[in-house]
From TrEMBL:
GO cellular component: plasma membrane
Record's bilayer topology term: Multi-pass membrane protein
Keyword Transport: yes
The keyword Nucleus is annotated on this UniProt entry: no
Protein name stated in the entry: ATP-binding cassette subfamily B protein
PANTHER family per the UniProt record, alphabetical: ATP-BINDING CASSETTE SUB-FAMILY B (PTHR24221), ATP-BINDING CASSETTE SUB-FAMILY B MEMBER 6 (PTHR24221:SF654)
Subcellular location: Cell inner membrane
Amino acid sequence: MKPPVFAQMLAPVRGRLAVAVLLQALAAVAGVVPMIAVSEVAAALLGGGARPERVWWLVAAGTAAVLVSLLCAAAASTVAHVADNALQLRLRRDLVRHLARVPLGWFSATNSGQVKKVVQDDIHSMHYLVAHTLLDVTSVVLTPVTALAYLLGVDWRLALVTLLPLAAGLALFARAMSGAGPLMAEYGRAAGEINSSVVEFVDGIAVVKTFGGARGAHQRFIRAADAFHDFFSRWSRRTTGVTTASQLAVSPVVVLIVVLGTGLAMIGAGWMPATDIVPFALLAPVIPAPVSGIGTRIQALRGGDTAAKSVTALLAEPVMPRPSDPEAPGEGGVRLRGVGFSYDGAAEVLSGVDLDLAPGTVTALVGPSGAGKSTLAKLVARFFDVTEGSITIGGVDVRRIDPAALYRTVGFVFQEVALLRGTVADNIRLARPDAPLEEVERAARAAQIHDRIQALPRGYDSEVGVDAEFSGGEAQRISIARALLADTPVLVLDEATAYADPHSEARIQQALSAVAAGRTLLVIAHRLATVREADQIVVLDSGRVVEKGRHAELLARGGRYARMWRAQEPAQESRRTDTVVETP
Ligand SMILES: Nc1ncnc2c1ncn2[C@@H]1O[C@H](COP(=O)(O)OP(=O)(O)OP(=O)(O)O)[C@@H](O)[C@H]1O
């Protein structure tokens, strides 16, 4: 049988955990000693002829054992928590180090959710396992074993009888759990269905209500809740009886009835002295007690193992190879030769793309949705590595450039702007934390956002999310200021389509014109009106370059671009006054 994954993960702190488990074992054994002492005292007193000094010795031993047990348990918990801290620190460091090396493009919304779950929830599950469950299991096993060992010494026959309720409890528990695997999977499915229908309902409530679908979405939730209820009723009907019988079998009353009944019969038959019943009355209920908490402990161990598997899987995500002998990116443009790319190794998203972005020029990428525009743009900033061909900057392959140097060379302005917690100035300074405020302001002015920032209560020191809230268009202009300050010679930008307000849009376009000055710009354009003046327009379709040229040339050619232009023409007319991304 393969050892559980968490066992391998605990290897670095195995020594400390062994010490913690040993201390807990001492605590568990010492915890039984006072009960043994009391039963010995009681037996001695009941039997008559007890020597006072023996009784005092027993009292002293019992008291000392209580102290030892408490101290050992506290020490075990401390050592386990220290081990847990060390493990968490190590895992978090490993995760951060690893995540810094996976391709940037890997961080899609889904994967970011996965990272959040692993770093927060799974590491927490592992904390529970390392700092609590292992010690808990140790005492739950050793306490009854110690009690049983003592009782075997008193009277082995009656000691074996104390095992009967334990055996019955375990057998009933096993019966309740037989076939639980598929049922647990069904439980997971039913609970998941409820969760997703609630999320769907809440997330989409505006859309759902506007389009009159509230009833439908509501129905889905009600159906999921009903299904969960049905499942739960079936589960309860199937297991409640057996689980209750199992709990009853190990309850102190039943244990005492069985053990004392048998004991009294044995005394009556003259098989054992009457005083020997005392230790059994005190210690027998301890023996089957662990059965009542077995379910939660198995659950905790399983949870820890599942969490360890997720952490292992995240640590196994392929990383981007780093150049062993990196080169500095050369001066000059960006060149793509025979570029092919596939996300899954099967479906080709890009193939045979040849493209030259001459220094200081604007290249617009256009094409239908899903043509591969964003993918191509991301390859330039090495969010992923090409599957075929090569991308060079100033003659140096991007794979041979140190990532930090690459990010100083290629900047990105996304449609989805991420403003981080911190001051507005820090947000603009992201790439150059030491940039003086004058430069920050100059960038903000060029990005058409300076006045808005000045109007905030604390100006550039206002905190995003605290006393600075920005609209989508404003946030985009901040990200443009960020790109201006970063001052990368190559800039990739995903043109915003979301900001329909003409005023905001015109200001974004002005800001983009400032960005274009003197830079090699690759812009993903959704509206052709914004790229009329580009030095080069590249039309992508199904991952291939189907046309390339300037606006007038492409129109005159009457091909794909001309058709797209005509299709968008009414929109172009209404936006004719827009500023475009102009060549400097
Ligand atoms: N992270 C990803 N994993 C797998 N497939 C992806 C991923 N991102 C994009 N794709 C797929 O690659 C193809 C090209 O997508 P891409 O986003 O590059 O197109 P696009 O031209 O930018 O589209 P749009 O204009 O709609 O943004 C699509 O079929 C898309 O489903």
